[in-house]
Specification:
By secondary structure, the protein is an alpha/beta fold. Helix content is about 20%, strand content about 25%. Strand 3 (about 75-80), helix 3 (about 85-95) and strand 4 (about 100-105) form a beta-alpha-beta unit. The longest helix is centred in the middle third of the chain and has 10 residues, at about 105-115. The protein is globular, with a radius of gyration of 25 Å.
Length: about 170
């Protein structure tokens, strides 16, 4: 493992410098590698959680196209990736039900806790829904599957908490 790596310039249309030497043979640039690759340095043992910065308004989408697909008879709804609870709020205004949300982003989950009946701030890749010991009539996955490490495994995991005649609503961009 090396602390530095060398990258040579290739000769191009700007390959000559004023005194006639070739750039490709006269200079070498050094770029430092990532901190975990330096000599005598150990890799971190704790898990690294990526920080994702979303654009303003990303978490407060009402999603009317999803709202019209939710059965009017659903009494318990699970919204995975609920954002700040805008969709859940619209559902609760339309029908009498209990809405539970799961959101990864802490600031958005804090807002959703004040709007939804229940909001859990956790990662869907590792969350076990069977621990809550509750069944749902409808599970919503609105533009969340593409962010998961193993979408099929998450769907299978959450299918255990879906009622026998329950509904899964999923939307995937593109």
């Amino acid at each position: 493992i090396y602390a530095m790596r060398s990258i040579r310039y290739r000769a191009s249309w700007k390959s000559r410098i004023p005194n006639g030497r070739n750039k490709a043979t006269s200079r070498t640039r050094h770029y430092p590698r990532a901190a975990t690759c330096r000599r005598n340095q150990t890799r971190p043992t704790e898990a690294i959680t990526p920080v994702v910065i979303m654009r303003a308004g990303y978490h407060d989408l009402k999603r009317p196209e999803i709202l019209e697909l939710i059965p009017g008879t659903a009494k318990s709804i699970l919204d995975l990736g609920c954002g700040n609870g805008s969709l859940g709020k619209a559902i609760k205004e339309r029908q009498s039900c209990h809405v539970t949300g799961i959101e990864l982003d802490k600031p958005a989950a804090a807002i959703a806790k004040s709007i939804l009946d229940t909001c859990i701030c956790d990662n869907l890749n590792r969350y076990d829904p069977r621990l809550a010991n509750k069944k749902y009539d409808c599970i919503i996955l609105a533009d969340i599957l593409e962010h998961l490490i193993s979408p099929w495994a998450v769907l299978k995991k959450f299918s255990h908490v879906l009622n026998e005649n329950g509904t899964v609503i999923a939307s995937i961009p593109n």
